[in-house]
Amino acid sequence: MLNFHKEHKNLVLTAGVVFVALSIMIAIIPAFQMQETEPIPDQKPLTANEKEGLRIYVSENCMACHTQQVRNIEMDNVWGGRPSIPSDYYYSKQRLDVWRQSPSLLGSERTGPDLTNIGKRQPSEDWHLLHLYNPRAVVSASVMPSYPWMFREIDSVSVTKDDKVVAVPKEYFNEPGRKIVASKEALLLVDYLKSLQQTELPGGNVNDFIPALRKIQEEGMSEGKTAGGLDGENLFKQTCAACHQDNGKGIAGAFPPLAGSKIVNDENPEMLLRIVLQGYDARPDYGVMQAFGDLLTDAEIAAITTHERSSWGNDAPPVKEEDVKKIREMVMNELNK
Length: 337
Known about the structure:
Elements: H1 8-34, H2 48-59, H3 118-121, H4 125-133, E1 151-155, E2 178-182, H5 184-195, H6 213-218, H7 232-239, H8 241-244, H9 262-265, H10 270-278, H11 298-308, H12 321-336
Antiparallel strand pairs: 1-2
Helix pairs in contact: 2-5, 4-5, 7-11, 10-12, 11-12
C-alpha cells in the first residue's frame, strides 16, 4: 500500500505517470488522429488573398470575441447549417512552417457572433467594410471596436478606379469633398471573412443559407405567413435587415431605403425581383448589393419581397413563387445568350 504522506518518491512517480498518461490520451493521440483529417470533397482551399486575410484576422486577435465552432446543440443552430467537423478547418489549420503550429481560430468567447458561416450569412463586401470602419453604423447596439487604421481619408479628386470607396453614412463621416477608402489590409480581411462558408457534406446534407430557415419552413401556415408556409418577415430579418434595417429605412449614404421605394411599390415586381436575383451596382451613392439568386429559392424570394411590398407603408400586390420562377428563367436566358 502506497503511503504518499511519507513516501514522497512514490508520490512524485505516481504524479508523473498520471501526467504522462493524461498527456498521451488527451493531447498526443488526438494530435496524431488529426493528421489523418482530409478535406471535404467539394471544399475549396484558401486563396493567397484569403490566407493573408487570415493572418490579419489573427494579428487583430478577432478570435478573442468571435468563435468559429458550431456545436451539436440546439442553441448553436443559429450560427451554421450543421455542426462543425475537423475537416472544416483542413485548409485554415495547416502549419505555418516546421516550427510553428497553425493559429487557434476556434475561440471561446461569443461577445460577437460565431463566424463559421458568416460568408453566407453576410456575403456583402460593402457591409463588412462599413462594419469594420464603424460597427454602430450597421448594428446600433454593437460593442465591437472600430478599426479606423484600416481605412484612409482622401480627397474625392484623388480617388482612383483601384480605390475601394466605403459608403459611410453622413452621421459617421460628413466631410464634403472627401472619401473613406479601404486599405489593402481591410480588403484582405474581408476576403477571408467572406470565405468562411460551410461546405455541404456528401450524402444530401443541406447547408441552409439561413440557419433558422428549416425551423421556419417546418412551422407551417400561421398568421402573417405566405401561402407557401414561409414567414417573409422573419426571412427578411435574417437576410436583408442587416443592410436595409428592420424598419425598411436603410442606412443613409450606405444602403437604400425600401420604405416608400418606387421599385418596391411598382405593381410589376420584375425590377425588384431582378435586383434580388442579380444584385445591384448602379448607384454610386450606395453600397453594392450582392446577388441572392444562388442563395435563396423562388419561394423564399417571393416571401421576402411580399413582406417588403406590404410593410412600412408600402402597398403593392403580393409576389407569387411563379413570378420569381418566371423572372429567374428570363435572367438565365439573358445570361446564356
